[in-house]
């Protein structure tokens, strides 16, 4: 069985059209159609059927899909193991959230470039949901994502780093953290690109018998601290976030949990020589802070 046929099936299952599968594989639409037809002939069963303007897997196609993914992942693992001690050369495409890029990735890439000038790491700033989409479409090699431990929907891997969540309040507010959290008039700031912050604020305030006032939704952590310094809100922030002279940081001793960081790849590619080296360097950089 031709591996190209298997890859076409997986991309078609993930993206739904011959055109999208062609874009992902680099083949023409007609070549994708021919490879799919060849796979069906070799197995003697229909694997896809038209549904509107897209193609959907038949029951036979759905039964084959997990095996196809396993075959491709095993092949990627084998490729990564072929030259484990070879030079680090080529390009690694990485996407991650802003704090990870600034604190973990940039120092790691700087160190790697000194030792391995033939290695290039390209970076994109992306939220975790965007990173997963880029990995699914094979547009990046490594994705650095985070979750919040108390409201996580399930850890995607083993965290390489975690930091506690603190309460950030205006410097003029001298109340203890417990009093600020218990005050129904406290105005909260949460992330505009993720619902995790909203859920964490509600989780932390849940025991006080009211629904927290989520007043602002902001993506930039620099803007968050400026809002707090101006007395316009309070936020739960990771301990490694930006500082501001007009903002007090109050430890919560585990009340709000931690922010956990993960480095992800497509299945089977975590062992690729360059991917493994970059992930190791990122983890080491995080632990050195």
Automatic annotation (TrEMBL):
Q: Which UniProt keywords apply?
A: DNA-binding, Plasmid, Transcription, Transcription regulation
Can you tell me which family this protein belongs to?
Belongs to the LysR transcriptional regulatory family.
| ATP-binding among keywords | no
One GO molecular-function entry: DNA binding
Cross-referenced InterPro entries: LysR_HTH_N (IPR000847), LysR_subst-bd (IPR005119), WH-like_DNA-bd_sf (IPR036388), WH_DNA-bd_sf (IPR036390)
Protein name as catalogued: LysR family transcriptional regulator
In the UniProt record, which is one GO cellular component term? protein-DNA complex
Residues covered by the HTH lysR-type domain: 1-58
Q: Pfam families, from UniProt?
A: HTH_1, LysR_substrate
UniProt organism field: Streptomyces clavuligerus
